[in-house]
Amino acid sequence: RLGISKLPPPPGGGDGWAVVSRFTAAAMEGLEDEGFVKRVCDRISQDHRLNGDERAEGDKNGFPGMPVASAAVVSAAAARYSLPGNFSGAAFNVDNMQTFRSLVHSGGVKACEHLWGVLQAAVKATSDREQQCLAAEMVAGLVRGSIGWEGEYAASLRDKLSPLLTEALQGASPESLPYWMDCLRHIAIQKDPRRLTWIVSAVSALAPDESSGSPAQLRALKLCKALAIEFGWRGGWLFGACGATMRRLMCGESKSVREEAARCLCIVARATQPL
């Protein structure tokens, strides 16, 4: 499906699929070591914390403290993967997401099983912003890596991941919410919404009403907006379900909720109007 079979043989002989098999075997060997997986994910979380410290410190002129070399690498990665700009600007790392995606794409169900314990722990660490960022990267990678699965394999992952995603979205704090917004956008980019109905259901389940507090209303609106941006005109059925709620919230007492509801309606209007 990736065209690997059409690649020329590697210098040492053999065909392209032999290279893929060796890569998969090496990846699975690492994933089977539970301690190794935990150490790697802990390092990723630590990197997020260090990056946050750099951004918080800045320099004497008030510019971000990210080294020029790091900024260049991030820019090159964004260009390579051709992902859209205007994301939240949070610490969500596309390279990490692509790594988890590749592991799941190569290792299949077994790769998901080996990553599951770390993912569960990261999701439940709701007060740890760096762990939440790691969890968002892992969820996006798992979903994108399994997007072509069918039958019992797809259903099995969906049944396990759906309640975990719902728990993560419901418990997202204002500090970690941008990570989950980026997670949803990276999942939904250039994808048919009909293949992601279980994710849409998880977001729709958060639909607030006037009795919900402002934090819950803002969280639901921002997550819905993340999907609406990527679905565009294809998400018409989602817009129909959420449009009435957005209109009601525009008449609420909270200024921030009214503004966020208006932003959502603006995105919906642009997506549903012909060019």
Q: How would you describe this protein?
A:
- The protein contains 11 helices and no strands.
- The protein is mainly alpha-helical and 275 residues long.
- α2 (34-57) packs across α4, α5 runs parallel beside α7 and α9 runs parallel beside α11.
- The chain is globular and about 55 Å long.
- The two termini are 34 Å apart.
Write the topology of this structure.
Blueprint: H1 16-31, H2 34-57, H3 68-81, H4 94-124, H5 129-145, H6 151-170, H7 177-188, H8 197-204, H9 214-231, H10 236-249, H11 255-272
Helix pairs in contact: 1-4, 2-4, 2-5, 4-5, 4-6, 5-7, 6-8, 7-9, 9-10, 9-11, 10-11
In short:
The protein is mainly alpha-helical and 275 residues long.
Task: Please supply descriptive tags for the structure shown above.
275 residues; disordered N terminus; 11 helices; mainly alpha
User: Helix count, per DSSP?
Assistant: 11
Model regions low in confidence, pLDDT < 50 over at least 5 residues: 1-14, 54-70, 77-86
What sort of overall outline do the alpha carbons produce when their principal axes are compared?
globular
Biggest β-sheet: count, sense, barrel?
A: none
Quick check: average pLDDT? 75
End-to-end distance: 34 Å
Please state the structural category.
Answer: mainly alpha
What string gives the helices and strands in order? HHHHHHHHHHH
Radius of gyration: 20 Å
Strand content: under 5%
Strand element count: 0
- Please estimate the helix content: 55-70%
